[in-house]
Automatic annotation (TrEMBL):
It comes from the Eukaryota. PANTHER family: ANTIGENIC HEAT-STABLE PROTEIN. Residues 118-191 are annotated as: Disordered. This is BOD1/SHG1 domain-containing protein. It comes from Edaphochlamys debaryana. The lineage of its organism: Eukaryota, Viridiplantae, Chlorophyta, core chlorophytes, Chlorophyceae. It holds the Pfam family COMPASS-Shg1. Residues 119-145 have a biased composition (Low complexity). Residues 18-109 form the BOD1/SHG1 domain.
């Protein structure tokens, strides 16, 4: 059995390797850009900005780059925090496009990994069965004498049988027969 953390890492790697991660990221950014909540928050921050409301900014004596740098420094932390909350909502909204896409991609990756694991197990089982049959055949061949053929028995084991001799029927047996009388010469019965 595999470790759930390792299994999760394999799934994430598979999602990344398939290129689905980049597509999910693109969809998150599209949703983030279209977020009215985030737009309103940015508007409120800019309108309430100390940097823009300062008398110096109104006098426009500062150059534009310096003004934007100061505004960035003032609003960055608040904006990043709000954006990360909005992204989390996008990712976890149960009826959202992104969360459904994530669920589908992860499910596909899990299914592919499962199918690959099943194929590997089948290949290993087939290889083990072939190796077992090969070993069994080699054992039978090495243990049998020349001309002796292994035959399956009733209990599943193999037994050796000798090849039939020429001129005899395979079912003929000498058991229970008396030896023929001895004859010395041409005339008369043996004594």
């Amino acid at each position: 059995m595999t470790n759930p953390v390792e299994e999760g890492a394999r799934v994430v790697k598979r999602v990344i390797d398939d290129g689905a991660f980049d597509e999910i990221r693109k969809n998150v950014f599209e949703e983030l850009k279209g977020s009215t909540v985030l737009r309103e928050y940015v508007r409120e921050l800019v309108e309430g900005s100390k940097t823009l409301s300062a008398d110096e900014a109104k006098a426009s004596s500062k150059d534009r780059k310096k003004l934007l740098d100061e505004l960035h420094g003032e609003l960055k932390d608040q904006l990043v925090e709000k954006a990360s909350r909005v992204v989390w909502e996008i990712l976890t909204k149960s009826d959202g496009r992104v969360s459904k896409d994530i669920e589908q991609r992860v499910h596909e990756a899990i299914c592919r990994l499962y199918e690959e694991r099943q194929q590997q197990q089948q290949q290993q089982q087939q290889a083990a069965a072939a190796a077992s049959q090969q070993q069994s055949l080699q054992r039978r061949q090495s243990s049998s004498a020349p001309g002796v053929k292994p035959e399956p028995g009733e209990d599943g084991t193999t037994r050796a049988s000798l090849p039939p001799r020429a001129g005899l029927t395979p079912s003929a047996s000498l058991a229970g027969q008396q030896p023929a009388g001895k004859r010395y010469g041409m005339i008369g019965p043996s004594s």
